[in-house]
Amino acid sequence: MGKVEIKIRKKILTPDNLQQYRNYPALLKQHARHKRYKRALRIFLYSLALTAFVLSLIFISVWKIMLDREQEKKKQQSPKTEQNSVPAKTP
Fold first, then answer.
1. Which residues, 6+ apart, have CB-to-CB distance to 13 below 8 Å?
2. String of DSSP letters for 16-33
3. How far is CA 36 from each of CA 25, 32, 65, 90, rounded to the nearest angstrom?
4. Where are the domains of the chain?
């Protein structure tokens, strides 16, 4: 039997094959709901990942700014202590 004959035999509806199509509209509705659910889940997960990425960037930038400010304060305090100290006399 050739490929074409096999395809034709598969397309022929017999009472045995007809049973699987009896509830076809309900099956299509369920399939559409499942596709919508998967699409909504995918959108939710991508938006969650994007939000986590943006929040991590914000956290890292705020942390870097705080470190820079602490270093500036240390640099400003260290020259003041050197100015107040008594310089060593050179002979």
1. 21
2. HHHHHHTTHHHHHHHHHH
3. 17, 6, 43, 84
4. 11-74
Instruction: Give the Cα separation of 18 and 60 in Å (integer).
Output: 62
Name the DSSP class of 89: P
Q: What is the pLDDT along the chain (91 residues), one digit of tens a residue?
A: 566 666 666 666 666 666 666 777 888 898 899 999 999 999 999 999 999 999 999 999 999 999 999 999 888 887 655 555 556 666 6
At 74, the amino acid letter reads K
Contacts of 9 (CB under 8 A, 6+ apart): 1
Half-sphere exposure (Cβ direction) of 40: Cα atoms closer than 13 Å: 6
Quick one: tokens of 35?
Answer: 């596709």
